[in-house]
Amino acid sequence: MSGRTGGRWAAVAAAACAMAAALAALPPAAPRDAGGRAPAAASVRQVAVRAPAKCADPEASLRPSIADGPAVQRIKSRGRLIAGVDQNSYRWGYRDPATRELSGFDIDLVRAVAKAVLGDPDKVTFLAIPTNQRIPALEKGKVDIIARTMTINCDRIKQVAFSTAYFEAGQQVLAPKGSPVTAFDDSLKGKKVCTAKGSTGESELRAESHGATVLTVPNQLDCLVRLQLGQVDAVITDSALAAGQAAQDPSVRLVGKPFTTESYGVAMNLGDQDLVRRVNAVLEDYRRGGAESPWMVAYRKWLAADLKGITAPPEPKYKD
Amino acid sequence: MSQPQPDPGTRRTAWREGLDRLKASATTEPGRLRIIGAVLAALLVAFGAVTAWQVTDRTTASDAVVDHSQPLSADAADIYRSLADADTAAAGGFLAGGQEPRAVRERYEKDIALASELLVKAAANTEGSHGAARQIALLNAQLPVYTGLVESARANNRQGLPLGGAYLRHAGDRMRDDLLPAARALYEAETGRLGSDYDDAESWPWVALATGVLALGALGWAQRRDYHRTNRVFNHGLLAATAACAVVLLWLVTGHALARSGLTTSYEHGAKSLRVLNEARIASLQARGDESLTLVARGAVLTPEGGDAYESSYRSGMGRLVGADAKDTPASGAPAPDSLLGRARALADGDGGREPLVKAIEDVRQWQQRHREARAADDGGYYERALPKVIGEKDSTGESFDRVDRELGQALAHEQGEFRSAADDGRGALTGLAAGAAVLAVLGAAAAVLGIGRRLSEYR
Asked: For this chain's UniProt record, which GO biological process terms are given (chain A) (predicted)?
């Protein structure tokens, strides 16, 4: 997870197809770590069937442009950007119970898009979109963009268009400080592990449980409740979300390295090509400026405390 | 020191001798009269005794209905209600965040205190009832777990951590999956006991009635025999005995019939309505809790179809309360006849019972309307507008819910009164019957013996 930049991308691209198809989280089990584990033969076959050779690089997006097309015109004439976000992911998109304001890394990104398109970061209508409603909401035109820790993969790029990757995360283990659990390995043997139902973590554990018993809960945050109540010994979730959990409980920490790689992108309707280019232009500006870039500022504000060691945003990739 | 064994031969002879004497006396008229007198007296005393015994049984059972099982059933309903109410208050207070209104917090604390207190009371009164005892043990074990989770939720929420919401949902799940089913099972067990006490109190005293009819028949036969033998129309003693017997029999039939009808009324108009109203109140509490949790969970928990789990639970609660919405158009006006409020209204009698229900139905409709507005605002991205529509003091779903809860409380109080007065009427009908039957039967037996004695004296 930490500071992976251009060099890493070569390896990623090489295995991108297998990886990304597996990221769909639709097949029950699919390994995706390009460098680390040897994928099981069955899963490779599955991947080969599911993802045709065309999907070599799902993270590659359209080149940035600030020219107005029909989608940008639609947002301008409405005067508001409609963004689908999460309200429950601490540090990413969540509603502070005290201020009742939405905040987080994803929210800052949406505001940057609103500022670029409409000249005002507050001209946004935030809709809370549940995980499984992200693609339908875009297809039905309920929202213009989805910024909701959404992983780019080969299955999804057939249904929605993604911006360039704005964050790189991976499944990781969260355990109490001083726990014998040290990574996604045999230190999990005989332990109880919690993960969200239907998540990538669940399919990873189904493929290789390392001798752990698995408890699934409706939402990843429910795992932290179970961990605090002593009902489980460790949590497996996305490193980005795990950072949000660690931020809420100083006695837990992320252990080991992320054992998968997933890139987050801003999702839009397949037809809104002008909007995709516009958002990519915003992301270019967002990344620009080295340590003082808006991206790094947002990273330090929301994530650095629990997701240490990131020195730069992921490099963009373009397909045209 | 040894005593001679009683000679079995001697005893048999004595027994045989007694029988022989009885046989011998049955061949003479005075002998027969003595036997008839003894049988009549025995029948009358037996009638009195059986009546006293069976009526006492029924009085005890109807006392149990009024003083024991109905209050216990009502207490179990209160445990059930206060738990559901606590859960609703916890979710409401949570939504208000740091500005949790004092009244909401007090309501939660009062509910938990009441539930604990009633659980202690119920535990002391469930002798021999295993089902109830098991539920009480479960409730006692789970209640502190629940309150612990709610406090964790509050503490995290006050620090602005979304973890608080996850704790509250976990607490809500414990309430829904463990506590409320146990409270419901306790309520069912106590209500089952109420039903069996009702059955005991209402069952006809057949043995007493049969003995009475037999005694009356025997008296009639003796007087007819007397008339044929002596041509005298009346034997005063036997006549008085017949009158006493008839009075007891009549008293027994009318007294029991009255008691029975009083109890039946108390069941039909009281216990049955109380049950439906309690269910309705719980359904409204759960719908309110779900409504708050929809805003707390913010789409974190989904149904398999992809809808919000709490919104869908709210809808099914409202469906139980007033009937499900049609596919596209929301239901309005009168509730569905098989819904809880529809049934409660059909069972309610008198203006006192009907009025609060009519108002409650109107308020549920208003609640649904406001809920739709709140959901539309939240779904449209206006959480800030949705929140006051749910927890605000004026024109909110909370205001509608409070009115519904108050009106259902009034309807419950009314039905409790109906139950009590009908059951008291029923119990009154049996007053003095046991003692009266015993005294009259003894007097009748004495009169019969006197009457036969008068005939016997003619043979000396």
From this structure: amino acid transport
